[in-house]
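Page 42, continued from yesterday. The earlier attempt failed because a stray header line got pasted into the input along with the sequence. Redoing it now with the clean sequence only.
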Amino acid sequence: MNGIKYKYFIFPPSIIIFLVFIFPILNLIRISLKFDPLTINNSKSIAYSYEILSSDNKILSKLSRKFDITDNTNKIPLYLKYSFISGEDKRFFYHNGIDLIGLSRAFLNNIRSGYLKEGGSTITQQVARLIFLNNELSFQRKIKEVIISLLLDLKYSKNQILKLYLNNIYLGSGAYGVNEASQVYFGKLITELTLSEIALIAGLAPAPSIYSPYVNMDLAIKQRNKILKSMYIDGHISLADKNTALKEKVQLNYQKDNKDLKDKVLLDYILYEANNKIKDLKSYKFLRIKSSINKNWQVIGQQISKDIGPNNIEVALLSVESNSGLIRTMITGKNSSINEFNRVTLAVRPLGSTFKIIPYAAALIEGIKLNNKFEDLPNCWENYCPKNFSETYLGNISLIESFKTSSNIVPLKIANDIGLKKIINLANLFGLGYEQKLEEFLPLAIGSYGDNLLSITNAYAVLNSNGNLYKPSVIERIESKNDELIWENKLIFKKILSPKVNKNLNKLLEKSVSEGTSIAASIKGKRIYGKTGTSDGNRDLWFIGSIDNLTTGVWIGFDENKKSNLSSGNAAYFWKKFITKIFDLKIE
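This time it went through. Structure tokens are written below.
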């Protein structure tokens, strides 16, 4: 009996001690030993450094790739290496992950100063926190940090640990890693940084929100100077190097004439397209990507899109060079730095009357003339009894008049007479119906099915390029570091319309702008070919229009698919505002 009681009272506490203290430590050791540094790389991180250029060779963005932990030939630049070692962990190459000497020194300095003047954590300990832990101030976390640091030092070389640190340390302004900090603060690749710029970035490490040059330039320079002094004392730079760097004026990215383009969504799309063009990305350490984007137009589009109200309504704009398919402007939303949804390529919304160009094209292909008459009167197809948007009907009118007034009845009659199968096949030929498969459903003739802005804009570009369908592309050329050509856009097209049909379709579009429902897009003295579109409840507002060799599509609406108080005329006017600014025209 007594023996049973002894086991009852003694054995369970030992289990509790094991579960509370020993098991977590053993589990931590197991996780640390199984750790693969490659698994922490961000899924969006790229395998190469890159430079993205605009169509006129202006810099859009530069970004160095993160350091390859497993590749010993991928060296850390010496100034960069020793700036962080001098600033954060002077004995990095001499301790085993925990620096008792440095910890003692920091403790004494903090006691003398009366405040937390110096940290005692090694770079290895900071890596442990970055990857496995957090910044919680507790005794338990510190114990875990010490254990992990010792294991990291056993398993990895000093250079590998330093690479992990430089790849992942947060340096403010959304920059994780020195490669992103180099881009954010200076718009440069790591190899292009000066000693002064490297020291400024290293100075951010203790408190990036405090020492950021965007927040307090004087404090940032003071920190830079402190790093430079430490590097000189530690023997990593000469006195001449230090003095030159101290005198260098800090020029941040936003102060440059050719500053980076602040549009992460567009840049991600360019990189995505570049990745699809190259078979073996890992064989390239650097790519120079010449995009088709007109940087000035892109900036103009970003600026005017913010003027559209109400505040929570969104916009998208796409300009395609009609006779090449090259994308010159892509505005994915009012503020792409906050909302990273690409409304040009990912938002599939009902096309409304912009789709009507398809049944009218089918009618012209079937031999129907522009002056052929149709009855624009209320009609029912079985239980489907549609109305014109304005609920006005013009009776016996020509094909061109029905398009000008954006009749719903006439394109439905055309689709019903010709056959929905032919309408769908023609839409597919124009590149429509792949984002949302078109089915034999009569309302599709007036835009009940959805597609994205890229597809419908490129479909209209066909009519502005003599009936030729080009594959839209945001890239003109890709080169390696030594100017070796890796990929080039061949501008291949497919003829899908005869010259006669194409000419007559443009007459429809021109009439819509000069006299019809698209008149808000008209510009005095200019021939414009376009069409508005509206979905139920004014949820989607469209205008697709061409001028000269440029086809531009506009969409306005709420991401939540709410009704709006705007009209497609607002989309047409947004189009006109953009076009007049990029071509320096006057709005009459």
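Notes: The first helix runs from residue 2 to 34.
Reminder to self: strip header lines before submitting.
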